[in-house]
């Protein structure tokens, strides 16, 4: 006849995830592998406070003394207009000052790109152009995610593009490597004024 499964509850139930003694994983289980560790002492109750436990070199406890010469006076390396002459709070710059520095950086590197590649004057990245034009700006991302071929935008320079942003179509480039904030000069067409189809990339 057919054997029916017993429906009674066993007196000593075994856990379902108990490792067999023949299983090789039992040797590395927490019960068999972890040693009995004593609790660590508190940091305030440590012994040997201030004691040197390791040293490097043969000189121990060197003493320094002055030779009695004349004192030196520091001098500014650059002009006072380009140096800090008073207290300065780091990371407390005004947004307008940061923008001025970024615009100056784009213009400086744009001039270097124009001289190096022999480019003509840059055009606006926002105006529709049926013919290929060369624009200047820095690479940005249209979202908070990672920069990729679909999320790349160009933040134009202030003089010609008024700092406007235009999405980039990089499908015609054989290979490229971009990062956010990179100053580049791009050659391409912008037939609608809403997307720049890039055909050449000029980078520093």
Could you describe the 3D structure shown?
This protein is of the alpha+beta class and 204 residues long. The chain has a domain at 93-203: OB fold (Dihydrolipoamide Acetyltransferase, E2P), CATH 2.40.50. It is built from three helices and five strands. A five-stranded mixed beta barrel has the order 1-2-3-5-4. The longest helix has 23 residues, at 95-117.
Give structural attributes:
DNA_pol_alpha_bsu, DPOA2 polymerase, OB fold (Dihydrolipoamide Acetyltransferase, E2P), 204 residues, alpha+beta, nucleus
Tell me the structural class.
alpha+beta
* Fraction in beta strands: 15-25%
Order of helices and strands: HHEEHEEE
Radius of gyration: 34 Å
Largest sheet features: 5 strands, mixed, barrel
Number of helices: 3
CATH topology of the domain at 93-203: OB fold (Dihydrolipoamide Acetyltransferase, E2P)
Shape: flat
Helix content: 10-25%
The average pLDDT score comes to 82
**CATH structural architecture of the domain at 93-203:** Beta Barrel
Terminal CA distance? 86 Å
Question: Can you tell me the CATH class of the domain at 93-203?
Answer: Mainly Beta
Number of strands: 5
How are the strands ordered across the major sheet? Answer: 1-2-3-5-4
Unreliable residue runs:
none
Organism: Anseranas semipalmata
Keywords: Nucleus
Subcellular location: Nucleus
Protein name: DPOA2 polymerase
């Amino acid at each position: 006849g057919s054997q029916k499964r017993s429906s009674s509850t066993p007196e000593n139930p075994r856990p379902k995830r108990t490792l067999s003694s023949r299983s090789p994983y039992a040797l590395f289980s927490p019960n068999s592998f972890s040693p009995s560790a004593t609790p660590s002492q508190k940091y305030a109750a440590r012994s040997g406070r201030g004691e040197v436990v390791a040293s490097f070199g043969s000189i121990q406890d060197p003493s320094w003394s002055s030779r009695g010469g004349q004192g030196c006076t520091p001098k500014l390396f650059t002009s006072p207009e380009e140096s800090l002459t008073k207290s300065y709070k780091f990371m407390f710059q005004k947004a307008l000052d940061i923008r001025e520095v970024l615009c100056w950086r784009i213009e400086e590197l744009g001039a270097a790109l124009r001289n190096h590649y022999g480019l003509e004057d840059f055009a606006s990245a926002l105006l529709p152009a049926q013919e290929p034009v060369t624009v200047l700006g820095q690479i940005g991302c249209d979202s908070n995610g990672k920069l990729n071929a679909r999320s790349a935008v160009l933040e134009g320079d202030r003089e010609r593009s008024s700092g406007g942003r235009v999405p980039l179509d990089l499908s015609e480039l054989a290979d490229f490597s971009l990062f956010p904030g990179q100053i580049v000069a791009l050659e391409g067409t912008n037939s609608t004024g809403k997307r720049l189809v890039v055909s050449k990339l000029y980078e520093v």
